[in-house]
Amino acid sequence: MKKFYLLILLIISTLLVACGGGGDEEAQADETSVIGDDIEGATELTYWTFATQHVDLFEESAKRWNEENPDNPIKLVAEAYPFDQMHNNLLLSLQSGKGAPDIVDIELGRFANYLQGEPQLESMNEYVEPIINQVVDSRFEIYAKDGEYYGIPTHVGATVMYYNTEIMDEAGVDIDSIKTWDDFINAGKEVVANTDSVMWNVSTTDWLMDYWPMISQQDTDMFDENGNLIMDSQTHIDTLQFLQDVIYEHEIAELTPGGMNQSEEFYGYMSEGKSASILAPIWYMGRFLDNMPELEGKIAIRPMPAWEEGGDRSAGMGGTGTVVTNQTEEVELAKEFLAYTKLSEEGSQDLWTVLGFDPPRWDVWESEAVRENNKYYQYFGDNIFDVLLDVREEINVLNITEYTPDVVTEYNTNVAENVLRQQAQTPEEALKQASETIKSSMNE
């Protein structure tokens, strides 16, 4: 099936080239930014992304690079495309051997597709290995194959709990006393008994915000390290049972309005004080600032509750690996610039100051640059990186495969709906059925 799929991609690529150089309409970017076009002799590097805010990071880096390297300037042409279009065009370009950019972002869930066979990407080991002891290495492993690091992560995506301290204080709960999920349930009972709020919400269309991080913190995933599907294991069943129980047995949680905590319906609900906490990665801070400004000064960040005393209290969720393709004519310059942008101390600091992300290099988490007062500290308080430092060694590797998107779809479409909303299946029944469905597609 894989060979057939790749053959189809090659045929489509050939047809596109024959019809006019790859299809002008397909190649239209939503946004194009050029830095350094006014510098004589600058070497051009092209960069593709699906996230327009990432362009800001590379623009800042290109400006700084040209100031610091006047004898080796670059002309950066950064283009932002729609998500699917960019990933599809990139895959076609790499398979056809032409049309790929020098540098490109690849989303975590799609990355495995680009590691099939011999990756058409350049190894970044010479830049990663010297600092591997200064980074959250689990976030580099998900973009690696056979000991070669191909993708440079954009953030750790450390998952934390966001507590509404106004509600928690009204309930008489000290958030620092919540160490385990059992503590969380007990705190939730106090919230429900003493306030007009629930403790938490459980998603039905976005497992990234509860089920997946709760699995990861137990050092497991949908696939094992060998790519075997294990989503119907007892750990998975028990975790899904926990999510069902907090809603229907303990009655401390509700289904997330809008299905996910990244919906307009949920933002309004949370802003009105209907729920006391959110489980989400650090990058979710931007959602608060943009969509829930009323909660400024009321939200505190703490580690995830552990499943048992001494257990892991975080998980790395979401992500983008930036790569250098093997079609670049400026291999060394492209690799050096990518490392400069995302692995250097200054670049790592920019990941925080420009994008509001938790940099993969934990050694900059104590630097003055990331500790300077800004809009995030004003909203959440000054302990953001203290929490991250506390949990940095408790973030496990994710086992991403080409079938991970199938698991996500199956969970969001059927498992969560049947178990959490309809209560039509037990967690075991739903997960075993989903496992059989996905295994069937894997064997095609």
Would you write up a description of this structure?
The protein is α/β, with parallel strands linked by helices and 444 residues long. It folds into two domains: 2-154 and 320-364, Periplasmic binding protein-like II (D-Maltodextrin-Binding Protein, domain 2, 3-Layer(aba) Sandwich); 159-316 and 397-442, D-Maltodextrin-Binding Protein, domain 2, CATH 3.40.190. 43% of the residues lie in helices and 13% in strands. It contains 19 helices and 13 strands. It has helices at 2-18, 52-68, 83-96, 108-111, 125-128, 138-141, 165-171, 181-194, 211-216, 234-248, 264-271, 285-291, 331-342, 345-353, 368-371, 375-380, 384-391, 404-421, 427-442, and strands spanning 31-35, 43-49, 74-80, 103-107, 144-145, 148-149, 152-153, 159-164, 200-202, 253-255, 277-281, 299-303, 320-324. Helix 2 (52-68) links the parallel strand 2 and strand 3. The radius of gyration is 23 Å and the shape is globular.
